[in-house]
Amino acid sequence: MFKDIIVGVTPTGIDDFAVKAAAEFSRKFEAKLYLTHVAGMEQGWGSVETLEPSGETERLKVQITEMYTDDLKGIEGAQVSVVAGIPHNEILRLARKKNTDLIVMGPHTKEFEEKRSKMWGMAGSTLERVSQKARCPVMIVHKDIVLKDPLFENILVATDFSEQAECAVSYGGQIARHYKAHLTVMHVADPGDSRADIVERLEKEFAPRLQGVSCTYKASLGKPSMEILRMAQETNTDLVIMAHHSKEKDPEKAFLGSTVVQVALNGSCPTMSVNRHFDLRCGLMYDQTGQVTEAESEAVV
To answer: Which of 147, 162, 183, 258 has the most CB atoms in a 10 Å sphere around its CB?
Structure first.
């Protein structure tokens, strides 16, 4: 399913669970694994150009390699890289170079976000920026996960019926079809809306493209993040898939939606974010009848 995986790391160890998850995925799928740290955040803009000549990047590389030695056992060719620059730019650059099909990241912290904003003059954390522009799904892991066989048995996709959210549903269908998992597609509506009408709309819009998938359609009323977390618990979900800030049309303004953040940081399973850049690839995987195309089978294997 995954062939090239990038996991963002820091010397602080805040990304431990993300590294462990990425390492397990790498072993399971015999995928290439790249641990990447972008130096410069702690040192400040003026010193970025001196980090490599001074040997600081090499020192950090040795430190991170030693930190994750046990996690990388049995993974042939795992690479640790430390480069100087702006974190999200360098992670995205490597992802394009390696044609990565999965980026794994840990949770961002308020302290890190505030420091980055002051130092670089940019709003949003590295996680937000990577999720905004990555051409592949971004998996957010904030706690230890245990990989099962099959890997996924229950998948939950939340949709708000936006164009971006359609890709999340399609991608969820791909994974569910591949693993013969059960897929729950849900929408959280405003109080006063009819659950029956919502379920009917979900079935009408998504059933044609989810042919061959064991699927349930659910409607909830309330706060989206709370309802998604509740549904994930009720359905023993192994993976939550959501669109990256699906209602925001301007890609430069589309930071990781608060609903995605709240679900990712409070759920008992990983949360996967897909965005408009991945949407084009996703849309090409279905023909006009909703049948799976050859491109999909190649992408999921």
So the answer is: 183
Q: Is the peptide bond before 150 cis (omega within 30 degrees of 0)?
A: yes
Residue 84 bridge partners (DSSP):
39
pTM over 0.85: no
The three state secondary structure string of 208-256 is HHHCCCEEEEEEEECCHHHHHHHHHHHCCCCEEEEECCCCCCCCCCCCC
Cα distances from 240 to residues 62, 101, 267, in angstroms, run: 35, 17, 9
DSSP state of 6: E
Whole-angstrom Cα distance, residue 65 to residue 80?
7
Q: Which two tokens stand for residue 131?
A: 């999720």
Q: How far apart are CA 189 and CA 198, in angstroms?
A: 8
Can you give the CATH number for the domain in which 45 is found? 3.40.50.620
Q: pLDDT in tens for each of the 301 residues of the chain? A: 789 999 999 888 888 899 999 999 999 889 999 999 988 655 454 455 556 656 778 888 999 999 999 999 989 889 999 988 888 899 999 999 999 999 999 875 545 444 544 444 443 477 778 888 888 999 999 888 877 888 899 999 999 988 778 889 999 999 999 899 999 999 999 888 899 999 999 999 999 989 999 999 999 999 999 999 999 999 999 999 998 765 555 544 444 556 887 888 888 899 998 876 665 455 444 443 344 444 443 444 3
Provide the residue range defining the domain that includes 103. Answer: 4-140
What is the Cα–Cα distance from 245 to 255, expressed in whole angstroms? 6
Task: Write out the H or E segment, with its range, that includes residue 111.
Answer: helix 110-120
Residues 63-82: b if buried by 16+ CB within 10 A, e if exposed = ebeebbeebbeebeebebbb
**Dihedral sign computed on CA atoms, order 151, 155, 158, 164:** positive
Please give the tally of structural domains in the chain.
Answer: 2
For residue 148, being part of any structural domain is answered with no
Question: Contact, 27 vs 74, CB < 8 A?
Answer: yes
Residue 107 lies in a domain: yes
